[in-house]
Amino acid sequence: TQLLEQSPQFLSIQEGENLTVYCNSSSVFSSLQWYRQEPGEGPVLLVTVVTGGEVKKLKRLTFQFGDARKDSSLHITAAQPGDTGLYLCAGEQTGANNLFFGTGTRLTVIP
Amino acid sequence: ETGVTQTPRHLVMGMTNKKSLKCEQHLGHNAMYWYKQSAKKPLELMFVYSLEERVENNSVPSRFSPECPNSSHLFLHLHTLQPEDSALYLCASSRLTGGLYEQYFGPGTRLTVT
Prior knowledge:
The structure holds two protein chains of two kinds.
Chain A: E1 5-7, E2 10-14, E3 19-24, E4 31-37, E5 44-49, E6 55-58, E7 61-65, E8 71-76, E9 85-92, E10 99-101, E11 105-110
Parallel strand pairs in A: 2-11
Antiparallel strand pairs in A: 1-3, 3-8, 4-5, 4-9, 6-7, 7-8, 9-10, 9-11
Chain B: E1 4-7, E2 10-13, E3 18-25, E4 31-37, E5 44-50, E6 53-57, E7 64-70, E8 73-79, E9 87-94, E10 103-105, E11 109-113
Parallel strand pairs in B: 2-11
Antiparallel strand pairs in B: 1-3, 3-8, 4-5, 4-9, 5-6, 7-8, 9-10, 9-11
């Protein structure tokens, strides 16, 4: 099993604060995806990063893929209550026909 | 209807019952997946179907039996389940695009085994 550890496991912050979520592994991935899951729904794909060192921005969300393609981070600027949810990273390895999902970070943004 | 749909959304069943979960995707994808999501555990991959053939079975107990009659439909047949099987069961689909298995999930079926 290719384990992707996410930290922190739980995070509760006030609206307007910044935060960073981490996704770490000892394995190399050909790509890494981030999903957000809201209560009662399935995960929704936010972004895919492919190249080591790649940085992608989605409005207030900034995603980075580590140079060695073993880790990734998600930074949220000025968090809003709508950002509340479970954030999951998922890695893909060459030759595998599925993704390996991380342990998840549950974010709560308090108004 | 678009995306990935799952029915039923909620299911309560006894340990001796037989039931089936249904998933349908309207995205033209050629791979479909069943996942189990329990509290305090990472998302667990159960089965993978690629071009309607099962390519992955992650040591899932035989009381779970998948069926993929065509590329748009996926079923999970359940029988003699245990209380620890209570969880959210998620279906997903994907298309291999440049080597990326970007997955589109349904809303899930919340299963309670009594």
